[in-house]
């Protein structure tokens, strides 16, 4: 695991994202919160990774090290492939030579047997009268085959052509059947994506009424810039709008699961006429729904990863306001609390 993987960021992540990731991981694995015995070890790895990647010179040297390491790994793999190819060629050559040797021996034996057979036939022809031979029917059949050799050749070509034509027809029918099956399967899949909670998940919610996803760490390390240096007031948290967004999350999840939520979020932020605060509420509610499914045993989706959501809401919503990082932190924390509470209540009502 390299330093980028330790901080859960991509290799081309900007400095702001690295700081956000470090802040979130430091809060998550702080010894006061994380009760594992390896808390100190994890914190050391996180701090070392952050100190290296936040320094431009160290990060450049580390990127060069990763590139060289990848080049060495690629070269080793190429050498292994080349060696395997050479061994395969040697094995094929040896098998071919052995086959030729065996064929030569078999041919020599056949020639010897043919010579013996001719001698035997010669002796028979001497002993048997010229006007009688028990082998005459076979000789006539052989001569008939030789005389009709062209007819047999034409018949063989017709049979081969028929087989090829039949094969092509079967392949075309099979492709048509697959296309039809794939289309039906895709339609059924779009209608029945099982990424939402199944009916029997009501048992889990009943047994664990305090179901809460892993809390999202607020990125208080968001860097002030000329665009957000003046402290102004963000729109107040609206409980009615949050409940509407949460209900919409449940509706879309029932129709198309997490794929539908993913598509709605991306489309919501991209529309210039869309209320971006609604997009923010919908994004957070979808995150809660995703985390609840993960706790119930469903696979996690990268789209709803903490660091990815932080980057998404900051770029698509908060960057349009001239506010400080403290204002962003407080507003996002309030939105998280209200939205998570609303989603929890709706899930309990639905599956209890």
Structure overview:
The two termini are 42 Å apart. The protein is mainly alpha-helical. The chain has helices spanning 3-7, 15-28, 39-54, 56-127, 136-147, 149-191, 201-207, 239-270, 276-295, 306-316, 325-351. Helix 2 packs antiparallel against helix 3 (39-54) and helix 9 packs across helix 11 (325-351).
Number of strands: 0
Strand content: under 5%
Distance between the termini: 42 Å
Radius of gyration using CA atoms only:
38 Å
Main sheet overview: none
Assembly state of the chains shown: single chain
Topology record:
Layout: H1 3-7, H2 15-28, H3 39-54, H4 56-127, H5 136-147, H6 149-191, H7 201-207, H8 239-270, H9 276-295, H10 306-316, H11 325-351
Helix pairs in contact: 2-3, 2-10, 7-11, 8-9, 8-11, 9-11
Summarize the model shown.
By secondary structure, the chain is mostly helical. It is built from eleven helices and no strands. Helix 2 (15-28) packs antiparallel against helix 3 and helix 8 (239-270) packs across helix 9.
